[in-house]
Write a structure and sequence with these properties.
Strand order of the largest sheet: 4-5-6-7
Structural class: alpha+beta
Order of helices and strands: EEEHHEEEEHHHEEEH
Radius of gyration: 18 Å
Number of helices: 6
Helix content: 25-40%
Shape: elongated
Distance between the termini: 53 Å
Oligomer: single chain
Strand content: 25-35%
Length: 187
């Protein structure tokens, strides 16, 4: 059986961060596709195929765009074993409970986050029900578009709407305070 862990790194070329699978102590992406970027951590850990049969996105093109040069593994779960099958047909087997524990531990790790990424995570957990009742579905929050601004993306009748809210970019909690204030005024 192989071992799995995860390493977090900044990804300046894509203006985000990346999680890189480490199998048996080696960077798995460099082993199978030399120049791939890992997937942005929030996107990576939201995937439904983390511990069930399916396809798991583990890498993206060096341009940083998901959908361009994606690196996928096929996952099969059977008999307390998880198997990753690469695009080159190489199989990697992991013991199920250790595999799931590794994913759980990594998904809860926030040590890699900058103040801005922490603000994004906190803002994304805000209850936007009042806006949803008005037809606005929350999609994402970013502090990486404009300094001192948190950009919120909502869809409304298939149209993306962006809103920018100012915040003290030295204190992640201030982003949630300012966004909650904005929601109360806007909704």
């Amino acid at each position: 059986m192989h071992s799995i862990a995860f390493r977090f790194e900044a990804s300046p070329s894509s203006n985000d961060d990346q999680v890189r699978p480490v199998v048996d102590g080696a960077d798995f992406l460099r082993t199978i596709v030399h120049d791939s970027l890992g997937v942005d951590p929030p996107e990576f850990f939201r995937q439904p195929a983390l511990g069930v049969d399916g396809k798991l996105l583990i890498g993206r093109c060096s341009c940083g765009v998901v959908g361009c040069g994606d690196v996928l593994v096929d996952i099969t779960v059977a008999d307390q074993c998880v198997t990753w099958l690469t695009q080159t047909e190489r199989a990697y087997d992991f013991e199920l409970s250790r595999y799931l524990d590794g994913f759980k531990t990594a998904s809860e790790d926030t040590a890699w986050e900058s103040v801005g990424r922490t603000a994004e995570r906190l803002v994304s957990s805000i209850d936007f029900t009042k806006l949803k009742e008005r037809g606005y579905k929350f999609e994402w929050a970013s502090t990486r578009i404009a300094r001192g601004r948190v950009t919120l993306s909502f869809s409304n009748q298939e149209i993306q709407r962006l809103f920018e809210i100012g915040w003290n970019d030295q204190q992640a909690e201030d982003a949630t305070t300012q966004v909650r204030r904005w929601v109360a005024e806007y909704a």
